[in-house]
Amino acid sequence: MSVSRINLATAPHRVAVLVLPGVVALDLVVPLQIFGPWPAELMPEEMVPANPYELSLCGPDPSAMTGEWLTARGVGPISSMRDADTVIVPGFLDPREPLPAGVCAALAEAAARGARLVSVCLGAFALAEAGLLDGRRATTHWMWARELRARYPLVDVQEQHLYVDEGSVLTSAGVLAGVDLCLHILRRDLGQSASNTVARFLVSAPHREGGQVQFIREPVAVAAGSLAPTRQWLQQNLREDHTLQAIADHARVSVRTLTRRFQAETGETAMGWLTRQRVARARVFLADTDRSIAQIADDTGFGSLEALRSHFNAVTGTSPQRHRRAFRGSAAVAS
């Protein structure tokens, strides 16, 4: 996506972080660290100004609690959002609770005048409530993705992605994916070099593609329905060579009935669901065991290394080798 960088020759780019009741401390700290004042020695001498962002906190409560331990100080009135070029909404503890009065109107006003809107984790629920995600792709923490989709059916929820960049509206997945999104924004605004410099300062990987899949250690729980016993059987026998007819035989229905019910109960085809379960199991083996990748391909029912690589990349956006390296280090990558 081609987006103009911010102009360092003009006034600093104003970033307002919206502090809602029950704001998640880490979700709040990430944008403060990345867009707040940088150490003078961090950036090259030719960068003027040294701090290209001017950050402020705003919200409906001047002493909002972050969970049960911390109190955010220096929170200005929500009206101060009107001057912001970028508005960031960190996650909050329970998105089922109604938003305070004036929040949706302030977010909608910011969007209408052209401000960039960013959410971290469950902050996506605030953007969705304000109608700013309608017709857009968006992500949030995988545990709450189904709730976001159910409550806001006009949102194209991409629960597998680390972050989604829709130009003027950007959303990230759970907690630490907010670091990836904020570094992505730095790259958009200031270029790769500045993003890499800040990443080194944070001792963080400089870049992870937004399309990478959120790491869910175990497959999502088997959905209820008449085919639940069959899905459980499939999960317990992923190594076996399953055909549609064999699955239908286990469920004691026709292939046509199996196809219709599987789609209705899971939102996926039987073979598509089975592939995702196999990939999920492969991810656990890659992270938690020393089995070779070829052995994992056999243990998860893919049958060949080539099949595992192909399906793994299609589902996760990365390779088995890179996944193992990310979770166990390069020394653990097996051939």
How would you characterize the overall build of this protein?
The structure is a single chain. The protein is α/β, with parallel strands linked by helices and 335 residues long. The strands form three sheets. It has a seven-stranded mixed β-sheet with strand order 5-2-1-6-7-11-10, sandwiched between helices. It has a two-stranded antiparallel sheet with strand order 3-4. A two-stranded parallel sheet has the order 8-9. 40% of the residues lie in helices and 11% in strands. Strand 10 and strand 11 (169-172) form a beta hairpin. The protein is globular and about 65 Å long. The chain has helices spanning 25-35, 103-112, 124-129, 145-151, 177-190, 192-202, 228-236, 244-251, 255-266, 270-288, 293-299, 305-316, 320-328, and strands at residues 13-18, 53-58, 65-66, 70-71, 75-76, 86-89, 116-119, 137-138, 156-157, 163-165, 169-172. Helix 1 (25-35) packs parallel to helix 5, helix 10 (270-288) crosses helix 12 (305-316) and helix 10 crosses helix 13.
